[in-house]
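pipeline stage [seq->struct] | target=DegT/DnrJ/EryC1/StrS aminotransferase | organism=Sulfurimonas gotlandica | residues=373
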Amino acid sequence: MKIPFCKYESGREEHSNVADVLDAEDLNQVAQLEEEFASYIGAKYALATSHGTSALHLAMIALDLKRGDKVVCSVNAYPNVPEVVRHFDAEPVFIDIESETYNINLDLLEAYLEDNQSKKLKAVIVTHMAGVTVDLERLYAIAKIYDVKIVEDASEALGATYKGKKIGSTGGDITCFNFSPHLKKNVCNGGMLVTNNDEIMERAKLLSNHAIERDEDSLEYIYDVVDIGNDYSMGELEAAYIRAQIVKQDANIQKHQEIAKIFSDALAGIDHVTIPDMSNDEHPFSLYIVKIDKNRDSFALELKKVGVECGLHYIPLHLLTYYKSKYSLKINNYPMALKSYQQVLSLPIYASMDDKEIKFICEKVKQIAKTRV
């Protein structure tokens, strides 16, 4: 048996929606997706983009990020987070993480903001690891005190909730979603920028299509360009496919939670393997992250040999060549991220996983754990 790290879902609804586009029966899929997504999240506005990274990049434009500005983020994030900051010749500032959730440490974030108050400090990008959030009420309060915008990277948090509200409707300035998350690639790309802020959405919409303006009463081919934008647009085929997936997302999360409980029941107490905290009822388990205390990479290689592919979320940014050299970062600058990086391993988890596959994964993890000394 071979179990991939991720598996894309495709059912009758996806095929039907895509067929409608191909048959030119419904060429309004993007607009429908935006409307349905805003309703699903509980947000005022949703703007579809070509990818999750496009949504993040557009968020930086909407916030008018400029050269020399600073944006704070977790050191444990995918490279696209600081990347979209650097594209403006702005500076990412890295903060260490919490030990259990692998999210940005709010104590360290608040201490940094207190010690580095500046008009150049524009925003904080918060990545929701595995769909689990930090204390968002505290985060928003901190942002208000220090006058910074909050951009939420919800690449792994589609449908996840905080105190009953879906991520994207809890109070952040901008939330960015990715329909083909890092290491869990879908058959199509797509992202979404969500906000309740009228000015942010107006600017994002303008700049998402080359900052082109048209007079509705004039000929369609007459236009003007009023700023520097880009093309961030999502295609109709992608929108058609994603629309069908959104309808299933809550059920998928419930299935993930059920699988996570089976994993945790089976792996609890196993030597060298630490299971995730199961006490958070709102954990969507878009990722099932364990800690391996002996030779994590060797453990992962052994799992791969027996047919179980794994992921890693993430390599801390200060260990990557560009950021390490650009900002003269030392390996021990972020001790918690470093310690977690040496141990964390993401096991396969997806809604279509059957009982046989779940049992197979648990058995192989147990077998390999017994060989650790």
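stage status: PASS
auto-comment: The longest strand covers residues 121-127. The chain has twelve helices and 14 strands.
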